[in-house]
Design goal:
Structural class of chain B: mainly alpha
Shape of chain B: globular
Order of helices and strands of chain A: HHHEEHHHHHHHHHHHHHHHHHHHH
Helix content of chain B: over 70%
Strand content of chain B: under 5%
Distance between the termini of chain B: 28 Å
Largest sheet of chain A: 2 strands, antiparallel
Structural class of chain A: mainly alpha
Strand order of the largest sheet of chain B: 1-2
Helix content of chain A: over 70%
Largest sheet of chain B: 2 strands, antiparallel
Oligomer: heterodimer
Radius of gyration of chain B: 21 Å
């Protein structure tokens, strides 16, 4: 059983989607309960990773390997390290809340919605487990299909435009990565195993080409400036659950991809072009922050703030090259990388929570425009504290998880170059500005819109959903130690690799 | 003198000819009410043919009639999948033909004769056999396209197909005559041996160019693709599905025999004309990818869309052939099989959703299909994502293999071109999914699957196979590789 834990995690939700589809047609209640059951079971199974995984060593563990295509040397091989374990648990946790969040909200074909969500969950877990590059690619692409359907059927008025843009944009990035992977397969002499690819000798020119192929694939997923334009569209048009999964998990796959591909396979090119990624990250942090400030649409605001926060992830990852290879400060590199990972998990909770909050408001008023709200706290006294908490976390208030990761990255950046730290620290001001200004306009003040006066406060289901998010945000804000411990050894291994040159 | 051994090697073909003649007679004597018998008998005939192909397969390549006919792993794979796919097509075609009162017997017997031509073509060891097989296949196809006599579109398509097809055959024959002039032989292996070290390179090159025109026409590769959209759209859909799926296997077989067996490949160091035809095919591939994908974007007719998509898929198939080595050929053959299966399902869907007086061939006819028949919408979704090459569907792995073949051949630029056009192609496949899933059903239309149960079941299996084969394609690949290993 424990030998196949990872396979179980991947395929349980996918197989669970079949009864949801079959039994759920015409019986929405049944579909909801089956999907909740599947999601909870998957979450329980993912918790079993914690005792099974030895966090002290940080190696890839719980290996599963099966020959898939013997004549090409492609294997169905899975393994996880501390980073994957954390991301998998985040995925399964968020998934429960997404299904709870959609409970009464999705009335049009709920069984198809739930099934698409479950299949999506399986594919995302697959991405975090795969150690064969082709298997990774298959999961990486396969998850686009359910997301395409989710945005397209249950999305807003411009959903078709948004979902096509999302799919084609992402596909565009990854297909060049596929050519890169085929080239690497050619170089390794017939192996798609990521570990073999990491060991193959490559000249700087080859590495540079591959680096840009990977960069295109993962930068679009993260998304980084200037290839971020699909994200605001997709977020605005997606149903609440789609936005939550997109922000909480899918964006993380881009950051995860950098760790698994760019860093080990093209270390020298990554060092060579680290400045590029750092500059783009800083643009995301500062400039996109300003863009968020002027948004009229709450979802768009949070979408842009996601791009800004993901800038810290890429910054934390690539600052390591400057620290290890130029200022010779591996401890700071480790801190930065650690911060990037904490930021990934924390942003998963915060962005998921923000989108859920907006979903709660949207379900009631059917508007996402900030100007339609105002004085919500008067009619929704239970909802308001949650909203304020998540907004504070989004602006990086100490004591919430949003603070921990950003602070670590800024500290590391300071060791590399104080100027980078200065620009990165801008987020503390801008982030607070756009988030708190939104809170001010939505929650405080007098009720100007008569529909707001009729709003009902959150019900038990919504309190459960928001409460769970709040717990995540607070626990990892006050006591990040378990999370850091889980990932520390794995991060240390990655930082060690940064110093190894392949040329 | 033909020995009994020669006949045994040809057994599946001989059997099919006899069976087709019997079916033709039977059809003439059956009362109108009993015509259904012909349908089931024809399917049985094909399945028995498929059994004969597999059961009698020799362990090492066997030749008959002094090398005119080759029976090896390649022909086995191509014949088996052609026969199976054509049997599937017969199941799809029945309700369609019945409702349109298109003559049953002629459709089945002509298709079986075309199949015999197809089988000769992929087994050809001699230029004459290539030509004979090709003519039997195409002549039967011309008649099939014109089967719906009263339809203007159908007659127009048939004439277009005939005129252009005859021209292409002429080109091919002209090229063959030059090759014969340079090598003094019609036997493909002898030609291969003669090419290495001959002084008649110029004449041979001329011959090669004309032969590639013929191959390009049969494949439907740009710039010899002009007939494809009109013929696909104008033919009765039951015939389009045959031209669009099984015939692509034949075209691959023909290209392989003429180019690799005949004009030389890179295996064993004896290059022959391989460097020349590699480059020519690369040009055809790029043109097909570009024209097929770009023009498909503006199509509103589903059959025409699939026609342009065929052109682009032939571009991918050529990427594998460009490799000119066993890995490339097996990738191409794998691609041909995966494409034939997928396109059979795509056209099958049009057949299933059409009914008396209504052709479900506009993309807009599929509007809101998910509301009415979620199951068939899901199947079409699988087909579309497979055509687009999105994992984990079967079509992706074909693309992976041909891209890999191009990279292995040192033509990374070609693989990148293939990748770029995959993105372009994605758009119009997604548009079909969009229409089915995201649009509300149009007023006054009622598109649903009205075909009989066998057709619906077989279509379900056909489309689900695209998903299942996406996980279990290893045996098929190994089989393709084995076919070219010896």
């Amino acid at each position: 059983m424990s030998n196949h834990l990872l396979s179980l995690l991947i395929w349980l939700p996918v197989v669970g989607a079949i009864p949801v589809l079959l039994a759920g047609a015409g019986r929405p209640g049944l579909a909801r309960w089956i999907s909740l059951l599947v999601a909870v079971a998957t979450f329980a199974a993912s918790l079993a990773l914690l005792p099974a995984y030895d966090a002290a060593s940080g190696t890839l563990q719980l290996n599963e390997s099966m020959s898939w295509i013997p004549s090409l040397g492609i294997n169905y091989s899975l393994a996880v390290d501390g980073i994957s374990v954390a991301l998998i648990i985040l995925t399964t946790f968020v998934q429960i809340l997404v299904i709870v969040g959609a409970w009464e909200v999705i009335q049009n074909k709920p069984h198809q919605y739930m099934a698409a969500m479950l299949i999506l969950e399986g594919m995302m877990i697959g991405v975090f487990c795969a150690t064969d590059a082709l298997l990774f690619y298959v999961f990486f692409e396969a998850m686009l299909i359910p997301m395409f359907i989710l945005i397209g059927i249950w999305g807003g008025p411009r959903r078709v435009y948004a979902t096509l843009k999302f799919f084609i944009y992402t596909f565009f990035g990854s297909i060049f990565m596929l050519i890169g992977l085929i080239y690497l397969y050619h170089k390794t002499g017939g192996s798609f195993a990521m570990s073999d690819m990491a060991n193959v000798h490559l000249t700087l020119t080859e590495q540079s080409w591959l680096f840009f192929a990977f960069l295109l694939g993962f930068a679009i997923k993260v998304p980084m400036v200037p290839v971020h334009t699909w994200l605001p569209d997709a977020h605005v048009e997606a149903p609440t659950g789609g936005s939550v999964v997109l922000a909480a998990v899918m964006l993380k796959i881009g950051g995860y991809g950098f760790l698994r591909f760019s860093l080990p396979i093209t270390p020298d090119a990554s060092h060579e072009f680290a400045w590029l990624v750092i500059v783009l990250s800083l643009i995301a942090v500062c400039y996109i922050g300003y863009i968020a400030l002027v948004q009229q649409d709450m979802k768009k605001l949070v979408a842009y703030s996601s791009i800004a926060h993901m800038g810290f992830v890429t910054l934390g990852i690539f600052i390591g090259f400057l620290l290890v290879r130029e200022t010779n400060d591996p401890d700071a590199a480790r801190l930065g990388m650690q911060g990037a990972m904490v930021q990934m998990i924390s942003h998963g909770f915060i962005s998921g929570a923000m989108f859920s909050c907006i979903g709660v408001l949207y379900d009631r008023l059917h508007s996402r425009q900030i100007k339609d709200y105002g004085g919500v706290i008067n009619v929704m006294p239970i909802f308001a504290p949650f909203y304020v908490l998540f907004a504070m976390a989004n602006s990086g208030l100490p004591g919430t998880s949003g603070f921990v990761g950003e602070f670590m990255v800024i500290l590391a950046a300071f060791s590399a170059n104080p100027w980078i730290a200065l620009f990165a620290a801008f987020t503390l001001i801008i982030g607070a500005a756009y988030t708190l200004w939104m809170v001010k306009r939505v929650l405080w003040g007098d009720i100007t819109n008569k529909h707001v006066a009729e709003l009902k406060d959150v019900n038990g289901r919504e309190i459960f959903m928001l409460g769970a998010f709040a717990a995540g945000v607070l626990v990892f804000g006050i006591w990040p130690e378990p999370l850091v411990h889980l990932m520390d050894a794995s991060v240390a291994r990655i930082v060690e690799q940064l110093a190894i040159t392949k040329v | 003198m033909p020995s009994i051994n020669d006949i045994l090697i040809l057994l599946p073909e001989v059997y099919l000819v006899v069976a087709a003649c019997v079916l033709l007679l039977l059809d003439a004597y059956l009362k109108p009410g009993q015509k259904g018998t012909v349908h089931w008998l024809s399917i049985l005939v094909l399945l028995v043919g498929a059994y004969l192909v597999v059961s009698g397969a020799p362990t090492t390549p066997a030749t008959a009639f002094g090398g005119m006919f080759i029976r090896d792993g390649v022909s086995e794979v191509l014949k088996l999948f052609s026969l199976l796919i054509i049997a599937v097509i017969f199941v799809y075609a029945r309700p369609y033909l019945k409702e349109r009162a298109i003559p049953f017997g002629e459709f089945y017997t002509l298709t079986i004769f075309a199949t015999v031509g197809l089988m000769f073509l992929v087994s050809a060891g001699n230029l004459v056999t290539v030509y004979l097989g090709l003519e039997l296949l195409t002549l039967s196809s011309y008649a099939l396209v014109a089967l719906n006599r009263d339809s203007q579109l159908s007659s127009e398509a048939a004439i277009k197909y005939f005129v252009l097809g005859a021209l292409a055959s002429g080109m091919l024959l002209y090229g063959m005559s030059m090759v014969y002039g340079a090598t003094h032989s019609l036997d493909l292996h002898t030609i291969h041996a003669a090419i290495v070290g001959t002084e008649w390179k110029t004449l041979l090159l001329f011959g090669l160019v004309f032969m590639i025109v013929g191959i390009g026409f049969k494949l439907g590769a740009a710039p010899f693709h002009m007939w494809i959209p009109d013929v696909y759209q104008g033919s009765p859909t039951a015939v389009t599905v045959f031209i669009g799926s099984a015939q692509k296997l034949a075209a691959f077989g023909m290209a392989y025999r003429l180019l690799s067996t005949g004009m030389g490949d890179i295996a064993g160091g004896a290059t022959g004309l391989a460097p020349q035809w590699q480059l020519m095919l690369a040009v055809l591939a790029v043109l097909s990818l570009a024209i097929g994908n770009l023009v498909a974007i503006v199509q509103t007719n589903l059959k025409r869309l699939l026609a342009y998509s065929t052109i682009s898929h032939m571009g991918y198939l050529l990427l594998g052939l460009v490799n000119a080595g066993p890995e490339g050929y097996s990738a191409s053959m794998f691609y041909a099989v995966s494409y034939a299966l997928t396109s059979a399902a795509a056209f099958g869907m049009i057949l299933i959703l059409s009914r008396s007086g209504f052709e479900c061939e506009e993309i807009d006819d599929l509007r809101g299909l998910n509301q009415r028949s979620p199951w068939f919408a899901f199947l079409m979704l699988l087909v579309m994502f497979s055509l687009a090459g999105v994992p984990p569907l079967f079509g992706f792995f074909g693309k992976l293999l041909v891209l890999k073949a191009a990279v292995d051949a040192g033509m990374i630029w070609l693989a990148i071109v293939g990748a770029v056009f995959a993105i372009v192609g994605l758009y119009y496949y997604l548009r079909v999914v969009k229409v089915m899933y995201f649009d509300a059903p149009a007023e006054g239309t009622d598109v649903r699957a009205t075909a009989d149960a066998p057709a619906r079941w077989v279509l379900s299996i056909n489309a689900l196979a695209l998903l299942v084969l996406g996980f279990t394609w290893a045996p098929l690949l190994a089989w393709c590789q084995r076919a070219f290993a010896g």
